[in-house]
Amino acid sequence: MKALRPDARGLARAAAVIRRGGLAAFPTETVYGLGASAFDPAAAAGIFEAKGRPHFDPLIVHIADLRQLRSVAAEVPPAAALLARRFWPGPLTLVLKKRPAIPDIVTSGLATVAVRMPAHPVAARLIRLAGPLAAPSANRFGRLSPTTAEHVLRQLGPRGVMVVDGGPAKHGIESTIVAFERGRPVILRRGALPDAEIAAACGLRKVRLARAGAKIRAPGQLRAHYAPSAPLKLIKPGAAADPRGAAYLAFRRRPAGGFTGVEVLSPSGDLREAAANLFSALHRLEASGARLIYAERVPARGLGLAILDRLRRAAAR
Ligand code: AMP
Ligand code: MG
Questions:
Q1: What is the pLDDT of residue 257?
Q2: Which terminus of the chain has fewer CB atoms gathered within 10 Å of its CB, N or C?
């Protein structure tokens, strides 16, 4: 695997791979990102697979213009529009109500999507060609964030990931993440854009800072982490389960009837497909009115580890 030059040819190749459901790494002003189409659940699952992440996190969707913003966000409150006008492109991420076209795996099941317009010109050109990109940092899980194309290739080249070389990225500035609660900005993560600038732009003396891990409940059901409202019980595939008032999340095979709802993650046993379906399947089972959700264990390898992590957390509540 070689780095692609950031010229028309290199960008067209990377965009073509992304449009076919593949991955491409690209430079931003913070670090290199590992991008997939923000509208493709299997491609987003591929991001977690390539990174070897043992858990799911919501991904930031990177856009190049305001038309793309409207394609990912269902609502842009006036304070968000104001901040976007003032600080985009730049290291500011806005958490907004998502459009249904954004799959649940991109937001880890949240009703909101985190959106940023990066300032790196190569990122902007790629996103214009490929469409909005869901992207975390382009490193293997637990390794350092990459600031050069070389770093990316060393970690992800063996997994067949291509990278557009945009030169060294400036290091150590993560984006500031801002959500909106009843129209008012709340800082979820401090970053490169100082709180005071955000306050000043909004005409406020101070902007509220969300406590780490706090559950923020806003009209858009903004919560730090999605978990199904019904308790979940992990079982061996095919183990006996009482269907009365219960829903069933199967890995490969549909159980015999009587459940309020049944979802099969992947009939062919493909962990990427299973990961891509996980959050939307849980949403549907929750909506079936079940008092309990049985969830089959999936194989504890690759993306199966991230799926099991999510199911165990839901089961532990
Ligand atoms: P990064 O590690 O810079 O790619 O930022 C990703 C982080 O953004 C996640 O781990 C979350 O903390 C945050 N984030 C992304 N989407 C959302 C969302 N919809 N609501 C709240 N926080 C989010
Ligand atoms: Mg990272």
A1: 85
A2: C
